[in-house]
Hints:
single chain, alpha+beta, 6 helices
Amino acid sequence: MKRTDFVFTIGYQGETAIVDGRARTRYGRLGTRELAERGLFKPALSSALFSGDAEELAEVLKAYNGGAGAAQVGSVEQLKRLLGVFDVPKNVQKIKII
């Protein structure tokens, strides 16, 4: 699975990842920090998870707590639960762009 596909995945159907094609086209070239700065926290978290960089994960958490206008999230694990993104799935065989 490519980074841009994972970052803009909106769901899964079996072994197929369902990808938001419009968002991927519009924001696919942005890095983790730029996604977070634009308030695209789920894609930013997905990007950080894909990179495996702990600093990027911390940046996303800091950006979320600074700009979400919601209750503060205490850890990356809590942010993962809140946004519903936990790890890059290994069983994805196909990508469906909608």
